[in-house]
Amino acid sequence: MLPPGNKSVRGLLEAARPHATISFDPNCRTAISPDTAAAAREQAEDFVAASDIVKASDEDLRWLYPDRTLEESIEAWLALGPAMVALTRGAQGPVLLSRSGRVEMIGETVTVADTVGAGDSFMAALISGLAQLNALGAPARERLHGITQDQLHALARYANKAAGITCSRPGANPPVLADLGPLTIPSSVLES
């Protein structure tokens, strides 16, 4: 968000894009965001347009777009070009939006020990799930953009589980692959 780092990071994204999948989470911090929400919004939209996968919390989107619904915000971000936009809403659970459709589910039922790191765990598990679908890297960009509704649902369930596990542990203590197991979707989908 802050100069001069924002321009350096944007340059690195452009350099990586020809061979990598780009993910973005604005992780808005109102105390350090430049000037106004309008400036942060412009910066975030620039990064969204350069990304393949985007995740934001409901708090991020409410601060960036106080005059829009969460649904309007994720739809607008998807229109900027990423293959997928994920919205996390704490106990209300995630919403994933792609060109194949929309998936919404409630959060995992857990005894909350700490919420620090839940959003990062969600994003990490989403990326892990996409890796299991062989949908990462520039050569797989078409596959990522063609993600099916079944795959989207499996990814939402997988990332939701990861966030739930993180919330059930004290400290930012995310799950490992052994905690999550493999991404589970119909075998016919995995064969493609």
Describe the fold and architecture.
The protein has helices at 5-16, 37-49, 58-64, 70-79, 118-132, 141-145, 149-167, 177-180, 187-190, and strands spanning 23-24, 53-57, 84-88, 95-98, 101-104. It is α/β, with parallel strands linked by helices. It has a single domain (5-190), classed as 3-Layer(aba) Sandwich (UDP-N-acetylmuramoyl-L-alanine:D-glutamate ligase), CATH 3.40.1190. Strands 1-2-3-4-5 form a five-stranded mixed β-sheet, sandwiched between helices. It starts with a helix and ends with a helix. Mean pLDDT is 91; it is low at 188-192.
Please give the radius of gyration in angstroms.
Answer: 16 Å
Give the SSE order as H and E letters.
Answer: HEHEHHEEEHHHHH
Let me know the average pLDDT: 91
| Tally of individual domains | 1
The count of strands amounts to 5
Structural classification: alpha/beta
Distance between the termini: 39 Å
Strand content: 5-15%
Q: Spans of 5+ residues with little confidence (pLDDT < 50)?
A: 188-192
What is the top-level CATH class? Alpha Beta
Q: Strand order within the widest sheet?
A: 1-2-3-4-5
Main β-sheet description: 5 strands, mixed
If classified by CATH, what would the architecture be?
3-Layer(aba) Sandwich
In CATH terms, what is the fold-level topology?
Answer: UDP-N-acetylmuramoyl-L-alanine:D-glutamate ligase
Please, what is the CATH homologous superfamily?
Answer: Ribokinase
Helix tally equals 9
Helix content: 40-55%
